[in-house]
Amino acid sequence: MKHLLIAILSFAPIADSGADIYKYVAPDGRVYYTDEPKKGFDYRLIIRTRPRTYHHDLKFMSGNKLKFNDLIAKAAAKHQMDPKLLHAVIQAESAYNPNAVSSAGAVGLMQLMPDTARRYGVTDRRDAEQNVDGGTRYLKDLLAMFNSNLTLAVAGYNAGEGAVMKYGNSVPPYPETRNYVQHVLSLYRKS
């Protein structure tokens, strides 16, 4: 247990610096965490951090929020979603920067990963309209998957629905995901 505590505590500075965290379980049961997964091993992304430009993008957030407000409202109406939830996710994910790219390869306003984009027919993740539409559909599916449980849907958006299911339909014990859920829900309640 002592080693697990040390590993978790060491995530805080890594997550702050913009590194994604991967987990590998070896055949002998040992668990390894890294920000540089090795090829040929079955590493799983467990913590996806914000784009490196996030703090810089906060300076331009109010202008960009206004710029994308109609697009977000349109996607929310089209998919019967609360626009305040979309704004909360977009603010947490990209600070409204349509060109944001995370070190894990998530792109755009809603930080879509390549597999998620393909799943929702997004051919250009940098296209704000496609990105918001795909991210909105994914969030809607997560809400349906987790019986309208907003906390689990938001956790699934950050860590993936598989991680939420793996931990018995609860928020995965990843510090980044727990912080992300609190942050998004706080933004949602304030709007």
TrEMBL record:
Domain DUF4124: residue ranges: 12-42
Alphabetized PROSITE patterns for the sequence: TRANSGLYCOSYLASE
Gene3D superfamilies from the UniProt entry: 1.10.530.10
Pfam family, one: DUF4124
Origin: domain of life: Bacteria
InterPro entries found in the cross-reference section: DUF4124, Lysozyme-like_dom_sf, Transglyc_AS, Transglycosylase_SLT_dom_1
Domain Transglycosylase SLT: 71-170
SUPFAM superfamilies noted in UniProt: Lysozyme-like
Family: Belongs to the transglycosylase Slt family.
Protein's name in the database: Lytic transglycosylase domain-containing protein
